[in-house]
Amino acid sequence: MRQLRLMNVIEAPIISEKSTAAAEKARQIAFRVKRSASKPEIKKAVELLFKVEVQSVHVLNVSGKVKRSGRFVGKRADWKKAYVKLKPGYDIDLSAG
């Protein structure tokens, strides 16, 4: 896999109550990733960007919500979320910087 592709796989970290609890309890970090990304690509991208070792990757597709503004109905885009579990001894500090 090319490094340019790997650099663009991860779009953003997800900072929420649920993701913070997962980080504290199970060393899992949540990321918003490209919809076309596969588990091996996500694993290599996290290892490349953050210099850590990944134990496992869990992926889920999130459906966009249907929103309404007056009589117009629209839909937000679907997106993909990845929970990355780190090996013991590794940590990612998303609050720094």
From TrEMBL:
<dbReference type="Pfam" id="PF00276">
    <property type="entry name" value="Ribosomal_L23"/>
</dbReference>
<dbReference type="InterPro" id="IPR013025">
    <property type="entry name" value="Ribosomal_uL23-like"/>
</dbReference>
<comment type="similarity">
    <text>Belongs to the universal ribosomal protein uL23 family.</text>
</comment>
<comment type="function">
    <text>One of the early assembly proteins it binds 23S rRNA. One of the proteins that surrounds the polypeptide exit tunnel on the outside of the ribosome. Forms the main docking site for trigger factor binding to the ribosome.</text>
</comment>
<protein>
    <recommendedName>
        <fullName>Large ribosomal subunit protein uL23</fullName>
    </recommendedName>
</protein>
<comment type="subunit">
    <text>Part of the 50S ribosomal subunit. Contacts protein L29, and trigger factor when it is bound to the ribosome.</text>
</comment>
<keyword id="KW-0687">Ribonucleoprotein</keyword>
<keyword id="KW-0689">Ribosomal protein</keyword>
<dbReference type="InterPro" id="IPR012678">
    <property type="entry name" value="Ribosomal_uL23/eL15/eS24_sf"/>
</dbReference>
<keyword id="KW-0694">RNA-binding</keyword>
<dbReference type="InterPro" id="IPR012677">
    <property type="entry name" value="Nucleotide-bd_a/b_plait_sf"/>
</dbReference>
<keyword id="KW-0699">rRNA-binding</keyword>
